[in-house]
């Protein structure tokens, strides 16, 4: 649900999963055949997992990080992992890059540039759930273009800073 002022988008688990399924259908409808999926950790892990299962393709993981300060709300220096985790072999062929959103676009743009420099990758396309209007990079596939560029409150945020003690309290009577 987008707030009236357009500054916040609140997403439930049901909405989140439906959006991932819509993303899979958009990729499928394009007719593009790919060999592997590479997701960006952490935001792209859930969508990457679902698309890996739907398309029956191997899933690789690349860690990136730029949100650190103020409980992950302030963007800092971009870190991109030197290594990519793959179930077997190496990343190559036709690769679908997955993340949850194109926010500023800085992360996706930098990762795409790095991957396009890898000779084993023949073709690269990107997919996200949300693209913000202010993004410097527009993915090949996305579910929603967010005109007001709101802060997205994803359903798993409840675990940020929770700790095992608070989690245990959820189950105590």
UniProtKB/TrEMBL annotation:
- Keywords on record: Glycosyltransferase, Transferase
Molecular function per GO: glycosyltransferase activity
User: What InterPro entries does this protein map onto?
Assistant: PRTase-like (IPR029057), PRTase_dom (IPR000836)
Name one matching Pfam family: Pribosyltran
TM ranges: none
Q: Where is the Phosphoribosyltransferase domain?
A: 12-158
Output the SUPFAM superfamilies linked to this UniProt entry: PRTase-like
Highest taxon listed in the record's lineage: Bacteria
State what protein this is by name: Phosphoribosyltransferase
Tell me what organism the protein belongs to: Roseateles paludis
